[in-house]
Amino acid sequence: MLKPGTAIAMSKVGKRYTKYDDTPMLLTSALHFRPRTRRGRLWALRGVDLEVYEGESFGVIGRNGSGKSTALGLMAGITAPTEGSVAVRGRVAPLIQVGVGFHKELTGRENIYVNGTILGLSRREIDRKLDDIIAFAEIDDFLDTPVKFYSSGMYVRLGFAVAIHVEPDILLIDEVLAVGDYAFQMKCHERMGLVRQSGTTVVVVSHNLGVIRKMCERVLLLDKGSPKFLGAPADAIAKFHETMEQSEEPDVDMTTGKPLERGVLAIQSLEVIGPDGQGTGHLEAGSDARITVVARVLKPMDDLVVGIAIFSQNGTCVYTDSSLGKPLGPVLAGELFRCTVALKATLPTGSYTVVSSIWRPDMKARLAESRHVTFFVNGRSTVGGVSDLGGSFSLDPCSEPSGPADPEAL
Amino acid sequence: MGEVSSTAPTGSFEGRSYLELTGESTSPARLARSVWASRGLLAILARKEFQVRYRRASFGLLWAVGLPLVQALVMALVFSKVAHIHGAPHYVVFVLSGLVGWTFFSTAISSGSTAVVDNSELSSRIYFPRALLALVSVASNLYGFVVTLVIVIVLCPILNVGLGASIWLVIPASLLMVGLATTFSLVASALQVYFRDIRYIVSAAVIVWFYVTPIIYPSSAVPGKLRLAVQLNPVTEVVALFHAATVGGSITGLPLVSSLVWLAVLAVLAVYLQCRYDRVFADLL
Ligand SMILES: Nc1ncnc2c1ncn2[C@@H]1O[C@H](COP(=O)(O)OP(=O)(O)OP(=O)(O)O)[C@@H](O)[C@H]1O
Ligand SMILES: [Mg+2]
Predict the structure, then answer these.
(1) B189 touches chain A (CB under 8 A)
(2) What's the complex ipTM?
(3) Does residue B120 belong to the interface with chain A, where contact is any CB pair within 8 Å?
């Protein structure tokens, strides 16, 4: 039974899926034409204990296949746990895997009724909300078209509009906001703010850590189906980056057109160092950071060039730089060397990826490329865009401009 | 403890709906409550499914009703005038009344058996009792059936068949048939999730089934050796009731018992399968 003030409770929850390698058929398995359908079992989620409080915004993060959607499916009652128990109090509106449940053949309008009914609204209540839903989704022209003819963006718009307007007690959002266009995303985020203020419990799954960081009060980090961390967003995100670094394979060849000359150099590590001199996955806005690259020399060289590139979450390159024109000097075979880049983290909130590559001094051939390292910047709350130029705003009274007045005004 | 459906009024706790999942299966009482609580959804979906099926056809209902009638008339003509089968008096009405029931039964089980799989778009993203989907399938076929039945009854006097009190037999006939179609669909739609060839098996079975059911021939025409097979067929009695209601005929003992036993067995299976897998169908959709 749920404690008062708790919206969702999971205790010792495990979910095991059976993976079929081919579609099971009755005739083949009954007649033993072939050995029985090959299948494997996997725990998509195991040992999850958590409570989501009423009115809270709760985030779930983790790598692909870590069990996030499975956890949401359990909260929505779409699937049942193999072990443990899930308890949920209140009306749940799930937005799972791009969209709410729509019937492909039915029109947008009909689907609003079907979905509203499943979520427990009466016909009259839906009638009343219909105009708001249509206005929010902005799909007037397609309202009486079967949803199978919708673009994925339109699908998401309508799904989000329905889920928001049924006034659920609990809203489950799995990665859906990313599909809409920019204007719609902004509208959704604005609306989500209102929803949260109204006391709705929100559970969000997202790979956009900036959104998680901004929206959530607590975050659960999943790794291969087991909970790795539960707590403040910043800590969970930092932990997430740690687990990612451990599992990421070194990226050997990236196509830039220029040849990769193997066997000359091997990059051993790339690290982001915070102001305290410790390696970190988390930087405060404007803080002094260093990026260090450690490489082992396999063949002696007279000189080399080290380059770094930083990318934002959506793949935009926000910064590239190199030691070109600043000779680092000759290196000997077998020697280890470290290149340190000191910089200021003048970036808006978000996740960033840094990668380094080492070149021959003439930049004709690349010798090595590091793996990608991700870090999170906790930016200044007012800053958006791709870079924090450190603007400071002031508002002062001022007199009429001196000199001749605007001739038009005369 | 607790209640499954978010729409179930009985499941509220401190005025809020409450859901507790502790294992994969659901108790029959709990499932029954959530199906009952979702009856509004059943009505909407059944109406929509009927509309969707005939939406792009210009005459809508005409197709639902016209096709079985045309089929019945063609069969009656072919078998009586071309193949010279004369087993029953008033052969056209005999075929018509038998086919009305059979057409409903066969279309209902064909669409019913794929109901859960075909609606995966809806059911993989939101929960409602999955049994509803098979029920929707049967219910959406009911509309065309009732209209066709009325037309056949109206046609009887025109085709020189006088109707007596026995016409009321269409009510038990319809109930038995809807019961069989519903339980069969509930079982097949659950199996279809786990064995994707069920739909083909059902289609093949329907073709054979038609000929081992005395629809276009009277059961008296069945030779002795095959008689038992025909009598154990659950649909035999249903069709016999439809025949009895219009052109008259006897209602024999064994087929009725066999129909009822089948109904009971299918019902138990349906309840078991739906309760066991209701909450995990979505894993395979
Ligand atoms: N219906 C299913 N049947 C079998 N295996 C499944 C099913 N759904 C998920 N899985 C497996 O369970 C694991 C967790 O999947 P899940 O969808 O929860 O991951 P996720 O964290 O949402 O990933 P992503 O970030 O890619 O959305 C995966 O290994 C996946 O292959
Ligand atoms: Mg997912």
Answers:
(1) no
(2) 0.83
(3) no
